[in-house]
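Audit log entry. Action: structure prediction of a protein-small molecule complex. Ligand: zinc ion. The ligand was supplied as SMILES and no pocket hint was given, so placement is left entirely to the predictor. Protonation state taken as written. Sequence taken verbatim from the request; no trimming, no tag removal. Recorded inputs:
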Amino acid sequence: MLTSIFEFQPETYARGLKHRQHLSVGETVALPVLLARGANAGPTLVVSANVHGDEYEGVRAIFEVFEALDPAQMSGNLLAVPVVNPPAFWAGTRTSPVDGANLARVFPGDAKGTISQRIADAFGRAIIAHASMYLDLHSGGVKFRMPSMVGYAAPDARGRAAAEVFGAPVIWGHPTLDPGRTISFAAGLGIPWLYTEARGAGRIHPADLGMMTTGIFNLMKHLGIIPGQPEPATIEHRLYGDGNTDAGMSATQAGFLMTHVQILDDVRMGHCLGTLVDLVGKPLEKYYAPVDGVVGLVREFPVVQAGDPLFLIAQREERGK
Ligand SMILES: [Zn+2]
């Protein structure tokens, strides 16, 4: 019999030790919860991965960091959920095979709703709510290519400062945030947040794994949970703008996508980003950059259904912003 996730009280666990738990959400789903409880009091960094079931870099990064930590040397805690969306994880799909939901669009969830709504409710109330800072590890998954990056709330100096020391080659500041995401739930509680993206493709690129493990350690140093100073990387690209994949250019019909740009390419308004063709190669639609900017998302899985997001254009941050 598993403990209900709502009975999980991190502060009741023994200090100076690591704790591994499976906590039940309803009758059918258990969330894996890792707690490295520092010997001394301090802030709690909450880290999650696999909100989308086809994103694996963060799962491994959490396992590797948790293994390496020595709670006897910690002032504060790491609280991590390596697989937030077990039904999608086991199916290898971005969205839930049970209710079809995108878990990153249903927060704060509903304790009496579908399984994705119940996971969101439990994860938000029982895990994110404990955070002094929250980090959600995403990647491009099977179908998208994203920069290896960390995203932050542009108006929040705490998030900006954390993004600067995270160690990602690309940082992306977002002026606004749509509701429904893990990070918008955290923001609603006043908790500073970051998220990552990475290459994806259903594989774990060593550079992306390194960015995520280094990033978690750097945040723990930044917060004073572990000793030492963060070791930030050179920031090669500073992006600005809306990062919601649902708000980019989408296909209006099914077809085979031929892309004409790479991630992080600079494009002018009107530049042709890709062509959707039918199965005799006849063009069905073309996609053009709606503004000058930099390519922030590319759909790389070429088989496309109506409504699938294909491209997203971000801005380079203006000097002095
Ligand atoms: Zn994701």
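Audit: result stored. Residues 51-52, 55, 138, 141 surround zinc ion (CB under 6 Å). The chain has six helices and 19 strands.
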